[in-house]
Design a protein that fits this description.
Helix content: 40-55%
Largest sheet: 5 strands, mixed
CATH topology of the largest domain: Nucleotidyltransferase, domain 5
Number of helices: 13
Radius of gyration: 20 Å
Shape: globular
CATH superfamily of the largest domain: ATPase, nucleotide binding domain
Number of domains: 3
Strand content: 15-25%
Strand order of the largest sheet: 3-2-1-4-5
Length: about 325
Amino acid sequence: MPDLVVGVDGGNSKTDLVLADTEGRLLSWVRGVGTRPHAEGMATTTERLARLGRRALAEAGLPATVPVAAGAYFLANVDRRAQERLARQQLTGLGVAGRIVVCNDTLAVLRAGAPDGWGVAVVSGAGINAAAVHPGGRSARFLSLGDITGDWGGGLAVARAGLGAAVRAGDGRGRTTRLRRDLPAHFGLGSVEAVALAVSTGEIPVTALHGLAPLVFAAAEHGDAVARGIVERLGDEIVAMVTALLRRLRLLRTPTPVVLGGGTLQNGHLLLRDHIGSRLAAEAPFARPRVLDVSPVAGAAAEALVAVDAPADAQRRLREAIAAREPPVSVVG
C-alpha cells in the first residue's frame, strides 16, 4: 500500500484537510472550523487538527492507527517563525505524521496557483494576508497582527465598513446608500442601528458580520457609490500589499505570478478583480495576476507529496482530483 499524506488549509473561517496516498489518489476530504490559535491557543488548535485527521482516516475506511508519512499544515494566524515551530512541536507530539511542514495559509494559495512555487499570493477571505517567495528562495511577508500593524481587508473588514457606512448615512455623517436597506434583513432586524446595537451587546457575534460582505459586493455591482468605494478600498489594499512584496524582493521588473485566493477573490466579484487588474497594470506592469481555480488545500497536499519525494505525476493527479470534487458541506467541530 502506498504511503499516506495529509494536506491542511486552515483558514480563519474553515479548515480543509485532505488525505491522499503518494500515488496521488484522493482518499478523503473533511472540513472543520476555522484555525484560530491566537484566540484559542495552539494546544487547542493542534488537538482539533489531530481529530480532523482521524476523521479523514475514518472516512477513508482506515483505522486511526495507520501511519501518515507526511503532513503539510498551512495555518491562518501562524505568522511568525516561533509560531510555526510551536505548531510543529505540538503536532509532532500528537503523532499526526512522520514528517510535518507548518506554514502560513497564504503559502497554500501560492503553492496551489504557482506551479513553480514562487511568486506572490494574496488571501482575502474572512481576513487578509499576503506573502511572496523569490525564485531564489528568499521570502517576504507581513507582521499581520490586525489594525495595530496597519492591516485592513477581507470579508469581515468589508462587512464592518458597510455597516458603519450605513449607520453614518442615517445620522447625517455619510452619503445615502442602499446598504441601510439591504444589511439589516440578513439578521432579521429592522435597521442597521439595531444590528450595531446587537453586536455591541454580544447578541450578534462580531464574526457573524462576515455574512454581510456579499451584500456589500452586490450593492457595489448595482452601482451604489458607497459600497463601490468600500470594494475599491479593498482592491487598493491588495495592490499595496502586492507591490510592497514585489519591491522588497526586487521583482517589480520581473514577470511574476500573483495568485489571488480566498472567498472575496475567488467568488466572482468582477468589480474587485477589474479594479485590482487596472491598478496592477499601472503600478506593477510585470505582475501576472491570476485567480486561484482550485481549493487552496491542493497547495498543502502538493507540499505534503513533495515532503516524501512523490513524483510530479502524483502531484498533478491529486490536484486534478481536488479540483473535480465538491468541497465538504458539513463541518466537523
